[in-house]
Amino acid sequence: MASSRIQATARQLSKTFKKKSRFDIGIAAELPVAYKKFWREWKVLKPAAVHYIPQDSKWKRDDLTGETLPVQNIPLPLKQPHQIHEGIWGGEAVIKGFQKRDPQKRRVPHYWVPVLKRTVVKSDVLNTHLSVTVTDRAIKLINDHYGFDHYLLKTPACDLASMLALKLKKQILIELMNGCPRHAYDPAKQKQIYDEYKTYLSSYTPEEIEWYGLTWYEALCKVAKIKEAANKPIPLKNVYRKNLVEKLKAAGIDAKTSAEDITSTTSWLSKMNPFGKKDEA
């Protein structure tokens, strides 16, 4: 009887623990809603299909046999090496699979790697040119969006899949929020750029822009620094000075006069101190 109760309690605890997300454990529970929104856009939302063509229908008919088969839109398993965060790959990644190179031999493992090239892109908002590693699909998406900035601002984080792209997107949003100060030398150009891209600011609040593009480790470090700044101890000399000023005010003594008296007393004591510095006159 006791063992069954223990097992039931263990099952209940396991269910409770499984229900907890990463935002419910430790310091992560203090992450703001702004970062949770970015995390959902980055890690929870399903990215657009890149390496296969999804079909809308649930069933399809075989042209040869006429047999009706179910449609299975299963994404291909993708490998994202660390080099993907140093460029903009347009949603592409490394595909791991098998290749049958000879009909008489067994299939062998094979990796399909996207073709990478170095090119220069221009950011109108940042008023600069950037040399980045891209793929043909990334170049096509930039052209389809009529500009590098439009591509970054319109594409969700799950499709960008690159820390470089996310950091640039955050920098562009900060620049727009501040009114495009990099174009301050030309007010007409500054107004033109701001009017063209200001519509993207309606999708983000200043707090969401502040937390946008941070990795999980960077977000936890930011929370830790905020807590440390809020709980920073006050030096005792500041507390004693404040208490002294309040007591002087309560006694009707001018704090400024008292400070001058203390200074004069200190200077008199310094003359009597044999180890103090002598005034060279």
Automatic annotation (TrEMBL):
Transmembrane segments: none annotated. The keyword Ribosomal protein applies. One of its GO terms (cellular component) is mitochondrial large ribosomal subunit. Keywords: Ribonucleoprotein, Ribosomal protein. The keyword Signal does not apply. InterPro entries: Ribosomal_bL28, Ribosomal_bL28/bL31-like_sf. One of its GO terms (molecular function) is structural constituent of ribosome. Belongs to the bacterial ribosomal protein bL28 family. This is Large ribosomal subunit protein bL28m.
